[in-house]
Amino acid sequence: FAEDRVVLSAVHLGMANKQTPNIDLATDSGPLRFRRHLAKLIAEEQSDRLIPLTQQHAEKKTEA
User: Fold this and answer.
1) Residue 64 falls inside a structural domain
2) In this predicted structure, what is the pLDDT of residue 16?
3) Residue 55 in domain
4) Which 3 state secondary structure label does DSSP give 61?
5) Would you say residue 1 lies in a domain?
6) CA 24, CA 26: separation in Å to the nearest integer?
7) DSSP secondary-structure letter at 12?
8) What is the number of alpha carbons within 13 Å of residue 4 lying toward its C-beta?
9) Which residues contact 24 (CB under 8 A, 6 or more apart)?
10) In a domain, 58, yes or no
11) Which of 13, 20, 27, 46 has the CA that lies 20 to 30 A from 60?
12) Contacts of 53 (CB under 8 A, 6+ apart)
């Protein structure tokens, strides 16, 4: 590991301070699809939370 430390440190710094987009390789397709799907699920879950609050607000207006 010690001989790789310089390279790994440079990679870590490069990923932390991106100046260009990542280049996705064919071998990255599985993890990339997973991350995209997870982001989609999170976005859907967050938007689902907004609907009941909006409905609840509308119901309060009709009650008043």
Assistant:
1) no
2) 85
3) no
4) helix
5) yes
6) 7
7) H
8) 4
9) 32
10) no
11) 46
12) none
Structure tokens at 25: 């390789």
Q: Which of 26, 29, 25, 27 lies closest to 37 in space, CA to CA?
A: 29
Structure tokens at 50: 């907004």
Domain span at residue 8?
Answer: 1-47
pLDDT tens, N- to C-terminus, the chain (64 residues): 688 999 999 988 888 887 877 777 888 889 889 999 999 998 888 876 665 555 566 666 666 5
**Contact 45/37 with Cβ under 8 angstroms?**
no
Q: Cβ(38)–Cβ(30) under 8 Å?
A: no
pLDDT score for 38:
94
DSSP letter (8 states) at residue 21: P
CB 43 within 8 A of CB 35: no
